[in-house]
Design a protein that fits this description.
Layout (H helix, E strand, L loop, with lengths): L2 E3 L2 E3 L7 H21 L8 H13 L21 H14 L3 H26 L2 H16 L10 H18 L1 H9 L1
Antiparallel strand pairs: 1-2
């Protein structure tokens, strides 16, 4: 039997028991706990984060983001400037450090979860929206760099916003996206 909400029908038959709700809530809690435990940890999860933190701080202290190929201080990498600008802005406001270098990734993760939840609630019942969000966070838990300061979570956040905007502006496409 299809679940209905706000005059739209989500034509998906899903096993909706209390077990799936508990599974979804556990995934959300687990992702948030691991992200918030990572935040105060003195260190980075992988070597690329050191680069992102250092170059972000250098950028806000007047250094070039991309150095010349023959420069003695060569520290450029292939990523675009947005990651460095976002991470550097947090460090400029809050001061440099492990926590401030990581905070942009955690904030992006939280906003991604919120945007996804709002989008799922727009096209499905609360229970199915919870199941979809649970599925999303369990997938994110297996993406071990999801809340690092790398560009991954920022790209996912922009994708979530874009999907939400497109589905809001064109409801028929949004319904297809939920079913897919």
């Amino acid at each position: 039997m299809p679940q209905e909400r706000k005059g739209r029908t989500l034509n998906v038959i899903l096993p909706m028991s209390w077990i799936t709700s508990v599974w979804a809530v556990k995934g959300i809690i687990l992702l948030l706990i691991t992200a918030f435990l990572y935040l105060p940890w003195i260190g980075f999860g992988e070597q690329g984060e050191v680069h992102f933190a250092a170059v972000s701080w250098l950028l806000y202290n007047g250094h070039d983001l991309y150095t010349a190929i023959d420069s003695a201080t060569r520290y450029s990498i292939q990523h675009g400037p947005i990651t460095y600008l976002i991470n550097g802005a947090f460090m400029k406001v809050m001061g440099p450090g492990f926590v401030t270098a990581k905070i942009a990734g955690i904030v992006s993760l939280l906003f991604t979860i919120i945007v996804s939840w709002l989008w799922y609630c727009r096209f499905a019942t609360i229970r199915i929206a919870l199941l979809l969000l649970g599925l999303e966070v369990w997938i994110l838990l297996h993406w071990n760099q999801i809340y690092y300061i790398r560009p991954d979570i920022k790209m996912l956040f922009v994708s979530a916003i874009s999907t939400g905007l497109v589905s809001t502006l064109t409801p028929c496409w949004g319904g297809l996206a939920v079913i897919a």
